[in-house]
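Weekly structure sync, notes
Attendees: PL (lead), two postdocs, one rotation student
Agenda item 3: pending single-chain targets
PL asked that the sequence for the first pending target be pasted directly into the notes so everyone works from the same version. It is reproduced below exactly as submitted, 308 residues in total.
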Amino acid sequence: MTRASNRNRQSGLFMENSERTGLLLGLAGVVIFGLTLPATRMALVDLNPWFIVYGRGLVAGIAAAIALTLTGQKLPQRSTWARLAATSAGVVVGFPLFATFAMQYVPASHGGVILAILPLATALAGVLFAGERPSAGFWLCGIAGSLAVLVFALIEGDNNDGVHLADVLLILAVASAAIGYAIGGELSRTMGGWQVICWSLVIAAPILLLLMVLQDTPINWKAAYPAWAGFFYLALFSQFFGFFAWYQGLALGGVAKVGQIQLLQSFITLIASALLLGENITWMQIGFACLVVGIVAIGRRMRVERRP
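Predicted structure, written out during the meeting:
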């Protein structure tokens, strides 16, 4: 009985430490992702949007191929290729495509608020693709957090031309990322987080290169330094290193629970927009940030059943 109790205690501590590590890694990924929309706006000043979409994936794909080669990784099992392709379609192609074009019409701060529904979308995708079963309390927290940021979006709504088109594009970006996060996060439990994003990038690279050549995508080699800085941030951090932390976090802590940390991403985007793009931060924005942080803290304590 004593040995069994010790075993159960050790198992519980291991699960708790694993979840805590997953949450910390997820937070690191969210911080990196929070700068994605401001970096996109910076890149769009002098660079063609199609080049940004294709180029960021190609540069990240080259880095991924180098990492896989240096570490002597073997080809993934045949059974994983379909899920890797789905992950690639969501986070390497879909999200960059829709988010980049949306950023032509609205400020990064507006886009950041709309993307705040991503945690709920990720939880839904986790139910559909990762076999997770969140409790009713967890769903209530997710809905409450999403409603909070949607109310914020209504209050801070942008009235520039094209805002409706941008919102549609941002919703499509949310759907793409959520599916890619859920499938990639589940695959990371057996394959390893960084291997998932690396193989997803390698799969997409030839297709992106072919599209760039066929479309004869213009490249402004004389673009200003901030535009290139934004581009390489998207390629090396948003598209590559950020996923190292993010997918490993999803694998350790669970898609639904770690995905809730994404509720903080909008406010990281707001801060980055102020620092990098000169947008203002109001007390109302700070208040909503505190509200969402509180909801996330409560959501962390809610039960989420995971498939063995």
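Discussion points:
- The first strand starts at residue 133 and ends at 134.
- The beta strands are 133-134, 304-305.
Action: rotation student to compare against the earlier draft before next sync.
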